[in-house]
Specification:
mainly alpha, 13 helices, about 80% helix, globular
Length: about 300
Amino acid sequence: MTPETRKANIAMVIAKLFAGLNMNGLKYLLPLWMSALTGVTVRCAFAAIAFWISSLIVKEDKATWKQRIQLLVLGGVGLYAFMDCFLIGISLTTPISGAIFCSLQPIFVFLISFVLMHEKITKSKIFGIVLGFGGALLCILTQHSDDLASDAPLGNLLCAACALLFAIYLLFEKKFLAHLGMITIMKYVFLGSTITAVVVNSIVGFDAPLFSDAFRGEWHWVAWLVLLFVLIGPTFINYYLTILGLKYLKATIVSLYSYINLVVATIASYILGQDRFSWFQIIAILMICSAIYFVEVADQKEEQPAKQ
């Protein structure tokens, strides 16, 4: 393992620790303190400002006008759609169920790579794909809406959609890393997502009691601290470390780290009382983790002897 890949793997572990806790932070904030669409706007705007300030400190080669437009579109369509599905989904289901569906990313990355890049498919990968979607289906069929999940079926489907959208986003972003610096990519991607978010919120309206109460002098400090954590850790640091990992690792490996989200969100949710213990969820988690193993790890072990 080279120093770059070691650094990339460490970056992905830290990024996904933040991403896992993000599930719990957003579940606390949404929809009580702000709507999901307003939450997307706040996160995108904060990250855009943070990455543009970073670009003043870290000097990188400038993007061409064509590249800038492409990155703006990637952010305005790809990243914004992913965040929309993610935040709306989390607001409707529980953090553990949301993490279960988001952990399908490696399977979606492989399927897209198979269709677009003709990546080799094996019996091990087919079994993993079937097992993974079986775990997701088990979660859909057994979880019902309650006081912790206002619309669990819809929330779970949206989290599954966000896993697919993020897989597509990773593959497109990987192509830009061959030509542009990480900060340059992120500042235009988040600028594009912010533009779309502001336009959408201008139509549907901004809804954030946390902010409106603050204007009246009512400061809800716990909610503000959770929001600050979500903006700095799971948003700015997480996305920076993710693109750092993507620079030196394959998109399939980067997506593979989503299993850490699942573990962290599960532990934190039970501790914080944001979810209830369910054997069906545990079985679904084991099925999806096994699926990821068969899609990525087991298949690589089978290929190594052939290469020697």
